[in-house]
Specification:
The protein has one domain. It is about 60% helix and about 0% strand. The protein is built from two helices and no strands. The protein starts with 13 loop residues before the first helix and ends with a helix.
């Protein structure tokens, strides 16, 4: 069973969005999928650093 997703609305810096779009495309993912992966990795790294 897939994890549940929650819709959110964010306001991000334009340059960040443009860079993230390019990186997402390079990984053959949607922007939403890419941001989700990056955020998960960041949170995991913070938890491991404790």
């Amino acid at each position: 069973m897939k994890p549940l997703k929650v819709k959110v609305s964010l306001t991000l810096d334009e340059d960040l969005v443009e860079k993230a779009k390019v990186l997402a495309e390079d990984c053959d993912r949607s922007l939403s999928q890419y941001i989700n992966l990056v955020l998960k990795a960041h949170i995991k790294a913070l938890e491991e650093a404790k």
